[in-house]
Amino acid sequence: MNQQHTDERPVRMDLTPLKAALADVVAIPVTPFAEDGTIDTTAHRALLRRLLDGGVRILTPNGNTGEFYALTPDERRAVTELTIEEAGGRATVLVGVGHDVPTAVAAARHAGEAGAQMVMVHQPVHPYVSQDGWTDYHRAIAEAVPELGVVPYIRNPLLGGEALSDLADSCPNVIGVKYAVPDAARFGAFARDAGLERFVWVAGLAELYAPSYFATGATGFTSGLVNVAPGVSLAMLEALRAGDYVAAMKVWEQIRRFEELRADRQSANNVTVVKEALASLGLCRRDVRAPSRVLPEAQRAEVADQVAGWSI
């Protein structure tokens, strides 16, 4: 009997668990480097275990806090595999993918084969992005991995909600959005134009923006600070879930200066400040890769002082 070969991938029918996983503190782990500049896998595993032991339940390897654009393709694959291995079923893994379409598709397929449940698609790195082209880019990736949840990372304030709606019409595995335009009113309008209940909305600008974005529809937020103090980030999430904005803003006040240091000069020291904090705790080296740079000596004490005031 002739057997008909098929290369079709199984399609995940019930996306509810993945949507529930996104409505949380979406941790963006750092990628620690050894003295010789390679990835410090021992420190990396220890930092991931610290996040998991601290209550984190969703991890995003190859995010911007993980220095995605400074890693080689082989390193990005290694980070994906290491994170999935350490998660060991204790957390959902949302792998960052991007660059040109073939590279992003290959990374998304690798993530699925390695055991990830979702991919986050970094914004297209191109000086000329049309709205229809944005949809085409994400459709090509989402259609290549129908068994995975897909989460676009939106930083373009000119993108309309209808583009996301059109994308999801053809790709039902597009289930959530990491929205990182620093404008809560714009976010509220975009979410409603795209379909507020249709997607899980993740505040993509971390703790400083989480309260205002939750007030307009978000149910999760990303965090780099969580690498340093998981309990602080989770305390904000608990308050926001309860609708206790007074308690949430107390956390906001506590971490405000730390996050302002990260955001200064168009986030020039976004990763640098997090790694400096981890170095002050003896958890990894402060090294970052160009075009980031370590903090000057004069600023390191301020970061250490900020962290010393938290409940780590």
Automatic annotation (TrEMBL):
Keywords noted in UniProt: Lyase
Protein name: 4-hydroxy-tetrahydrodipicolinate synthase
Binding site for pyruvate: 65
Originating organism: Streptomyces fulvorobeus
EC code: 4.3.3.7
Coiled coil location: none
SUPFAM superfamilies per the UniProt record, alphabetical: Aldolase (SSF51569)
Any GO molecular function: 4-hydroxy-tetrahydrodipicolinate synthase activity
Keyword Lyase assigned: yes
UniProt record similarity statement: Belongs to the DapA family.
Positions annotated as active site in the UniProt record: 153, 178
